[in-house]
What does this fold into?
Amino acid sequence: MRRPFLAGNWKMNKTVPEAVALAKELVQAVANVADRDIVICPTFPCLAPVAEVVRGTNVKLGAQNMYFEDSGAYTGEISADMLISAGVEFVILGHSERREYFGETNQIVNKKLKKALEKGLGPIVCVGEKLVEREAGKAEAVVEDHVRGAFEGITASDALKVTIAYEPVWAIGTGKTATPDDANAMHAFIRTVLGSIYSADVAGKIRIQYGGSANDKNIDDLMKMPDIDGALVGGASLKADSFSRIVKFVS
It folds into this structure.
């Protein structure tokens, strides 16, 4: 049985005081939730202050990105060790916005994944197709390319430490959502790809989140699906009431 995993990606939102206030409100709202993993991913300046808020609670801290080198002349980047020293336990890698706006490739995502695993961070690797790719019938090919590219050279034992977030790019921030059946079909396909890379047993243990405009209105239906193990939530994670409702989904 895969343990549900709900993560909030705050993207480029919230000042330090706002992030601390939201974290405090959320911690209180989900204090009694014990049977699922909860992670929030603020911006870099907010990580250490929010770490103080969530320390010792059932809410864990994640980052939205990291670089694949340990240190050096990489202006504007942040290393795994820096994240860990700020209290981070999880990190989002290969988000569609990183791929679209900052030119991240499968090879870059793969390097970041290897570094995150080396350092003991819990990686959340994002995969997903654009609308034009889906309409051209290439959705599965694109997603398979993302999965195989990210997991190149990753051992089965390390693969089990990775969470995949399927994010149909056309559904992010648009209010559009793949139907639960459509989303589950792609999750099942991803599991088939993982099975071909590793084994059916390994594929059956890796958690796959849905990341395309998941919200407090559709989370129950999404979580009823057999291959959907959680959600990577964007806008709906910026308010404690909506994200806590997502965390408290009823399947």
In short: DSSP finds twelve helices and eight strands in the chain. The radius of gyration is 17 Å. The CA atoms of residues 94 and 126 lie 5 Å apart.
